[in-house]
Specification:
By secondary structure, this protein is α/β, with parallel strands linked by helices. The chain has helices at residues 10-18, 21-35, 40-50, 68-79, 86-91, 98-106, 113-124, 127-132, 143-151, 166-174, 196-201, 210-231, 244-256, 279-290, 297-306, 310-320, 327-338, 341-346, 357-365, 380-388, 410-415, 424-444, 457-469; strands at residues 57-61, 82-84, 134-137, 158-163, 176-178, 185-187, 235-239, 268-272, 293-296, 348-351, 372-377, 390-392, 399-401, 449-452. It starts with 9 loop residues before the first helix and ends in an 11-residue tail after the last helix.
Length: 480
């Protein structure tokens, strides 16, 4: 029987994860299988030189008058990508197949799917689309087009589908106006320009009769299920019957997300938050479900003292007298624990450190870099309610809360004691210290995720879990 495969050495795993080597190799393999080059090595070299794996590849779909043009143009400005639509392909590009497509248009005949697919392929092969990325507006229109695009290696990373009731779309359609200079779309009721010059040059698009609109809607509803079937894993439906900025915000949020990867992932999770915000509970839940190592900095120091290690002997006087343990000693104990084999192999969730930016910088210098950072937010009143009413039974060690978990019997209630740390004046000092340092720490961890901790613990856990499982959003895009 063959010996079991040895695990990948943890330092190599961290290096590969930090530099996204798995994603890089996955992208190159996909490109090789799609394009089947005669010289794979040279093809991969050229692919790496292009450095365009993060370039947007987005399809914006939806029925007529759903706002595809507005969304696509806005995304292009926002992402510096190239917009491709029927209009740009037929009237703004000089492509080998443009003349043939225009002849169909002039004869008022439907342009064949194969011709559209070839036009799109020709346009997307240009260097601007390769470098900057692309936004396909209104393509693919049907399943056949989608299959043709895929067979040509044109595979979007995000597909945005706008939807609205047909009655709303028909109403929008009747007031639709187009700026022939900028191609921006306006509406006589919902989005009328304030500039008089723009107002004067707006024109009513062709084929806007209600009958023609109903025919187009019918065709769209007939074709969309086939398109959905192909792109369902990368598709997001967004309600277009809401204020335009809400639509655009939701679209941007989606195209910034990265889809789940099959890459090996070792969680290195950091919880920061005021006292009483639930960091310990959430760390325990995460550790229990995902078998990561739960590390509470305060508990780690106490264990070092109890085990009478050399470092434990050094920090014992500080703990016994209630003084803060110097950062250099804390870091030595913490680094030793986080570099242990179980933490390097299974991952860890750390709470109670760092408490300020200096400690955060020391973590970084020690090459202890979390890949998920959460800041727990909790109102001051909730902190007081959670902590000031905590009690402990000195006989059994059982913990109670005067409101949320009262003692079950009067004889237990009588003997309950309060930890001095939970007196209001001490809570105030701890909260004040936290908020004095947290702003710099938030700036230091710029990719941090913020958690509303004033909710049911299971709701908080589900949110944290979803953020750990999903890749972090791409931060290279401009914000709203």
């Amino acid at each position: 029987m063959a010996a079991p495969a040895r695990p990948w050495p943890p330092p190599l795993g961290a290096y590969a994860e930090e530099r996204e080597l798995f994603r890089l190799l996955q992208n190159m393999l996909e490109e090789l299988l799609i394009h089947k080059p005669d010289d794979p090595i040279q093809y991969m070299i050229n692919h790496l030189k292009q450095n365009n794996d993060d370039a947007p590849r987005i399809c914006v779909l939806g029925p007529p008058a759903s706002g595809k043009t507005t969304v696509a143009m806005w995304l292009c400005k926002h992402l510096d990508a190239i917009r491709i639509s029927q209009e740009t392909l037929l009237f703004k590009e000089i492509l080998a197949l443009t003349r043939e497509a225009k002849m169909y248009k002039e004869r008022k005949q439907k342009i064949p799917n194969a011709l559209w697919a070839n036009l799109i392929q020709e346009r997307l092969s240009n260097v601007d689309c390769i470098k900057q990325g692309w936004i396909l507006e209104g393509f693919p229109e049907n399943q056949e087009q989608a299959w043709m695009l895929q067979s040509s290696g044109i595979i979007p990373r995000h597909v945005v589908v706008l939807y609205a009731p047909d009655t709303v779309l028909i109403e929008r359609n009747s007031g639709k106006r187009l700026d022939p200079f900028t191609e921006e779309v306006y509406h006589t009721t919902f989005d009328w320009p304030s500039d008089p010059l723009i107002q004067q040059r707006l024109v009513k698009p062709e084929d806007l009769s209600e009958q023609e609109m109903s025919k187009k809607l019918l065709e769209y509803h007939r074709n969309f299920p086939g398109v959905f079937q192909i792109y369902q894993n990368v598709l997001k439906s967004i309600n277009a019957d809401q204020p335009s900025m809400d639509v655009l915000s939701q679209v941007l949020t989606y195209v910034q997300t990265r889809h789940r990867s099959a890459a090996p992932f070792t969680p290195r999770i950091l919880f920061c938050g005021p006292p009483g915000s639930g960091k310990s509970l959430q760390a325990a839940l995460i550790a229990q479900k995902y078998s990561v190592v739960n590390i509470c900095c305060g508990q780690l120091l106490k264990e070092a003292v109890a085990d009478k290690t050399k470092l434990g002997e050094l920090i014992k006087p500080y703990i016994d007298n209630g003084y803060p343990v110097p950062d250099n000693l804390v870091m030595k104990i913490l680094a030793e624990r986080l570099n242990a084999l179980d933490c390097m192999t299974n991952g860890w969730v750390l709470h109670g450190f760092p408490r300020d930016i200096e400690q955060g910088e020391q973590l970084q210098k020690s090459h202890i870099i979390p890949n998920r950072v959460f800041f727990f937010n909790l109102p001051y009143e909730s902190i007081m309610e959670r902590l000031s009413q905590r009690r402990i039974d000195p006989t059994t060690g059982e913990r109670y809360h005067m409101t949320f978990r009262p003692a079950p019997a009067p004889e237990i209630q009588v003997r309950l004691r309060q930890n001095p740390r939970d007196k209001e004046e001490n809570i105030e000092k701890r909260v004040e210290t936290y908020y004095r340092n947290v702003k710099e720490l938030e700036d230091f961890y710029e990719d941090a995720i913020y958690v509303n901790a004033d909710q049911d613990p299971h709701v908080v856990f589900e949110f944290i879990e979803s953020c750990i499982i999903k890749p972090l959003p791409c931060k290279k895009l401009k914000s709203l």
